[in-house]
Amino acid sequence: MNKPGGPTAAAAAAAAQKQKNLLQRADTEISNLLENFGLMVNVARVNDPPVRNSQESFMMEMRAAKMVQAADSLLKLVSELKQTAIFSNFASLNEHVEQCTIEFNLLAEKTNRMLAEIGEEAAASLKELESHYYSSMQRTIQSES
């Protein structure tokens, strides 16, 4: 049987921490994507001075590159989530733990019944032996001497 701090508890804690980390990564990458898109739209104004346009063009390229990086990171995150779902099917793990718990509880009940029967048989045997002892000739001979 697993103890409260056993492998199942450790696996559940690790899974919860991993899920928390994945959600934080997803939030961060989506925020980066939205921020870069917003900044790219703000820079996309057309101005008269050619120098200003080239600066804005460079900034747009830089923001577009950051958006591509954020999107790539999100794709990797989705891949990691798929792998986690495939290799760490927590529903089946929980089901297995519940099934083992039920089996162990049934085994404990069976053991308790068996011990109760053994105790009753031992008490009956002891009572029978006592009655034989107290009514035996050996005891009566010893008490007369």
TrEMBL record:
Keywords: Nucleus, Transcription, Transcription regulation. InterPro entries: Med22 (IPR009332). GO terms for molecular function: transcription coregulator activity. It comes from the Eukaryota. Signal peptide: none annotated. GO terms for cellular component: mediator complex. Transmembrane segments: none annotated. The keyword Nucleus applies. The keyword Transcription applies. GO terms for biological process: regulation of transcription by RNA polymerase II. Its main location: nucleus. It is found in: Nucleus. This is Mediator of RNA polymerase II transcription subunit 22. It comes from Stephania cephalantha.
